[in-house]
Model the fold of this input.
Amino acid sequence: MERSTRQATHAGSWYSADDEILAGQLDGWMDDVDVDPEIGVPIAVIAPHAGYSYSGPSAAFAYRYVKPEGITRVFLLGPSHKYYLRKCALSTFSRYATPLGAVDVDVGYIDKLAASGLFETIPEDKEVSEHSLEMHVPYIQRVMRGQPFKLVPMLVGSLELAEEQQVAELLIPYLDDPQNLFIVSSDFCHWGQRFDFVHHKKTDGPIWKSIEQLDRQGMGLIEAIDADGFKAYLDKTQNTICGRNPISLLLRTLKTKSAIPRSIKFTTYAQSSQCVSVGDSSVSYASAIIA
Done:
């Protein structure tokens, strides 16, 4: 397969196309984070992927904890917004370009994963238009501080439980390898008529508070590394967490028998706006550290 460079299709709209402005924004957001000394060095993070004016400050609460020393490979797991995906799918590009430069894709690891038979390939046009992967690459570049690394981009689809377990068992050696960092891309509740989701538990207070309580219920299950509980919560509440699939896969991977015991801690939670009426809308953003 002949591979090419994926261009930064969201630069200039979802985030700045000017390298100096972009670097300054990312550094500024990370500088504003008060680091919790009780949280260890992450092997993985969960972080949002909306336009930087909305979710950039929240994503900083994940990336501020990353220590680049020793990391040579970054696994980037996102959801598919552009097409229905039943399995996991791997990048077909050789590089990911951003205003901060281009990052090599680890084609050798892509081929190794593909040989398992558990992965599809992402259609090129879908990968070009997908934002859940691209929005993390500038942040990754910035925290790596010029240290060489390669990227392993993949989309995670709606796996059956047995399939999810198979992929988890395949990924656990990579997750436990200190040379690797895993990035799990997800926003949380998408609330409003435009998202066909207007859940409001009035006993929780105003709409925005009800959204927060709903999100925090899911966040609690994630912190408990309760893969089955998280799936049951999603089935019951139908909360519109767009990265539910990569989060579920992460939890399942952490629960495999050979996994080194880990902890998950959320470091921030925010909403794009505070909804007070059914005509409003918002998206929630949360970041977490897996150490």
